Automatic annotation (TrEMBL):
Highest classification ranks of the organism: Eukaryota, Metazoa, Chordata, Craniata, Vertebrata
Segments passing through the bilayer: 16-39, 51-73, 79-98
GO biological process: D-alanine transmembrane transport; D-serine transmembrane transport
Source species of the chain: Scopus umbretta
InterPro entries on file: AminoAcid_Transporter
Keywords: Membrane, Transmembrane, Transmembrane helix
The protein, known as: AAA1 protein
GO MF annotations in UniProt: L-amino acid transmembrane transporter activity; neutral L-amino acid transmembrane transporter activity
Gene (UniProt): Slc7a10
Length: 133
């Protein structure tokens, strides 16, 4: 969010759309690759929707073309998009990967999470008694 705010203050909307579209296409492609890997490694697990493997493979062919064309035509925008994605790596290591955190770090993470949930109105139910309408 901080990187997006800085980009909005410095750049124009067209550039921001290019950053986000590159990131979206990259994430979509990685998701489809994950689907193919799961179909190959774990063919027996339950899937509510089954798709012929030609569909994701065709999608990946178009995806690769779009990604390569984007990298060729606007390498700076793609590089900034990758940097935006990589800003999440320290957050992952601080919040998820690091298991034996000091209590002060846990309290800080919990307070930032609570503040973010209240700010964005995304507080999950606490598992209490269901409210009647």
């Amino acid at each position: 969010c901080l990187a997006t705010l800085i980009i909005m203050l410095v750049g124009d909307t067209y550039t921001l759309i290019n950053y986000v579209s590159f990131i979206n296409y990259l994430c979509y492609g990685v998701t489809i690759i994950g689907l193919i890997v799961l179909r190959w490694k774990k063919p027996k697990i339950f899937r509510p929707i089954k798709v012929n493997l030609l569909v994701p493979i065709a999608y990946l062919a178009f995806w690769a073309f779009l990604l390569i064309f984007s990298l060729y035509s606007e390498p700076v925008v793609c590089g900034v998009g990758l940097i935006i994605i990589l800003t999440g790596v320290p957050v992952f290591f601080l919040g998820v990967y690091w298991r034996n955190k000091p209590k002060c770090v846990n309290r800080l993470i919990e307070s930032v999470t609570c503040w973010g949930q209240k700010l964005c109105f995304v507080v999950y139910p606490q598992g209490g008694v269901a409210e009647e309408e």
